[in-house]
Amino acid sequence: MAASDPAILRKTVSRLYDAFREAVDSIGHIARIDVSIRQHQTMSLVCRLTEDKPNGVTLKELAEAMKLAPATVSELVESLVRKNFLQRVQNPEDRRAVQITLTEYGQTLLDECTQRVDSLCADLLNGLTAAERDSLLKGLSKVTSSL
User: Fold this and answer.
1) What is the mean pLDDT of each run of 10 residues along the chain (147 residues)?
2) Which domains can be identified in the chain, with CATH numbers?
């Protein structure tokens, strides 16, 4: 491994993060809303977790999945509830428990963000040859697995 390999990876991850943030920000400007990357990540995670739990996810489960303190996640959820992206639904089996789900509006916003980011990724991949693309995607899959 060359001495510059970690620096190249760090720069690439940083530039991708910035590009993804710009793609998410562009949705916010179109819809006249303010969505941070952390809020987008929270919405994405709620969406993914509720695939297996359609009634919603608890704050504790969300905090554990995000590896954040429940108080921090609670603030994130509250800000997203105020923006009508997430909703709290009473658990039918335990009236004291609350489940968190995406609202229809939140799902629409998330779908738009995903389309923008996918379009950005497709544009980046289209600049590569088939062999370069295959090699990059295989390498990224290994990196992702090691995380």
Assistant:
1) 74 83 67 72 93 90 93 93 92 81 92 84 89 90 84
2) 14-146 (1.10.10.10)
